[in-house]
Design goal:
Elements: E1 12-18, E2 29-34, E3 48-52, H1 57-78, H2 91-117, H3 121-124, H4 139-155, H5 157-165, H6 171-187
Antiparallel strand pairs: 1-2, 2-3
Helix pairs in contact: 2-4
């Protein structure tokens, strides 16, 4: 049983030729178990259990880490901005839509990468949870959020200036935000 294994944070184990369940005897598979070590008191609460046909734990972990980029892409296309599943278009329009999404996705991703390179992601990105200290956003969602911020400031510039004038003691914070906005517009 997996629960009986003595796996602690910072460890990885590899078990060849494991069957998955008692009844059907599904397998044999190789089982890689990896539990990332905590860093500054933060770390995952449980290990990764990965069934694979690969024979080395390093190779399994490298390939599994790459998978997260693919998962993020699917999330972005489904719910992160384009809602591809809800379009319900015919085949020809679907292909045209996918091409359009690919172009827009590439543009937004490059913009997000540029924002990250300029270290503007703390302004342009949002934390997913209040307790989180690391941004959990793809370059795509960072780029989209940055574009929204630029557009909103262009649209509501006059109102923003009036609101800023109401809080003169926060002037330095507003200046920092406006400087960041200027850098974001240059990166765009």
């Amino acid at each position: 049983m997996v629960q009986d294994l003595d796996i602690r944070p910072g460890m990885n184990q590899f078990y060849p030729a494991v069957t998955c369940n008692k009844g059907d005897g599904l397998g044999p598979f190789n089982l890689a178990i990896y539990w990332k070590r905590p860093y500054r008191g933060q770390g995952p609460k449980a290990p990764w259990y990965i069934l694979t046909n690969l024979s080395e734990v390093k190779q399994v972990m490298a390939i599994y880490r790459c998978r997260w980029g693919i998962e993020q892409l699917f999330k972005d296309c489904k719910t992160g901005g384009y809602n591809l599943e809800e379009t319900q278009v015919n085949d020809q329009r679907f292909l045209a839509l996918v091409l359009l999404i690919a172009l827009a996705y590439t543009f937004a991703t490059f913009h997000g990468q540029r924002l990250r390179q300029l270290r503007l992601n703390h302004y342009a990105g949002r934390l997913q949870e209040h307790q989180e200290t690391t941004l959990r956003q793809s370059d795509f969602s960072l780029g989209l959020y940055g574009q929204r911020w630029i557009y909103a400031m262009e649209l509501w510039h006059h109102g923003a200036v009036q609101l800023i004038a109401l809080k003169p003691h926060k002037r330095l914070f507003f200046q920092r935000g406006l400087q960041t906005l200027s850098l974001m517009q240059k990166a765009f």
